[in-house]
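Hello forum,

I keep getting stuck at the same step: I have a sequence, I want structure tokens, and every attempt I make locally crashes halfway through. Rather than fight my setup again tonight, could one of you with a working pipeline run this one for me? It's a single chain of 69 residues.
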Amino acid sequence: MPQCEGFRRYGGAFTLGPVKWEQCKEEAEFTITVEQDGKPQTLPCCKTCWQEAITAGIRVLKIEPLPVK
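Reply #2:
Ran it on my machine without issues. Output:
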């Protein structure tokens, strides 16, 4: 299975140090299609990042499970 392409932000406003973005280390279980900058974008996604997208108010257009090998 491919790796999830979600990213998490660490550091910044109320913590010491600069903002740092790290790619999620989980395996993708779905393909998620979201709207970003007015355009649809499809990426591999894990359950955690799918929930974070919903919580963050990102518009999810479609979610499909990846085929099981």
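Residues 7-65 form one domain. If your local run keeps crashing, start a new thread with the error log.
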